[in-house]
């Protein structure tokens, strides 16, 4: 079974681009401009979370995710244009971070760190 990545991003173009990249790598991808309830219902193996999603602070949403028992072990990678993304990620207990605009190798590497691919689904 493929590992499921949720891309919580309100910019549809970014969701689609990142989604295509991760699908090409062998992941199942779901993109949304999600509420906390939707995030919990999706049951992702990893969450990519924008720092600002629908005028809500991603770090606050990250803290809310980590406070829910069924989600607390799900890795969250926050992404942002902020120069202090490392501090933001640390403060909200995110498992990792990636700068926008994306370095695609860094993005893939960060996802793989938490969701290694089963050889069955890995790209050749």
UniProtKB/TrEMBL annotation:
Response regulatory domain residues: 4-115
Modified residues (4-aspartylphosphate): 50
SMART domains listed in its UniProt record: REC
Pfam families, A to Z: Response_reg (PF00072)
Protein's organism: Mucilaginibacter litoreus
InterPro entries in alphabetical order: Bact_response_regulator (IPR050595), CheY-like_superfamily (IPR011006), Sig_transdc_resp-reg_receiver (IPR001789)
Keywords on record: Phosphoprotein
Name of this protein: Response regulator
Highest taxon listed in the record's lineage: Bacteria
Signal peptide region: none
């Amino acid at each position: 079974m493929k590992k499921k990545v949720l891309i919580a991003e309100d910019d549809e173009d970014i969701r689609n681009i990142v989604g295509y990249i991760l699908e090409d790598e062998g992941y199942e991808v779901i993109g949304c401009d999600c509420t906390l309830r939707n995030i919990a219902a999706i049951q992702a193996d990893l969450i990519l979370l924008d720092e600002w999603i629908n005028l809500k602070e991603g770090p606050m949403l990250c803290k809310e995710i980590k406070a829910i028992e069924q989600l607390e072990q799900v890795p969250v990678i926050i992404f942002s244009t902020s120069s202090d993304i490392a501090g933001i990620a640390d403060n909200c207990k995110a498992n990792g971070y990636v700068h926008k605009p994306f370095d695609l190798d860094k993005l893939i590497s960060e996802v793989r760190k938490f969701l290694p691919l089963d050889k069955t689904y890995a790209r050749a």
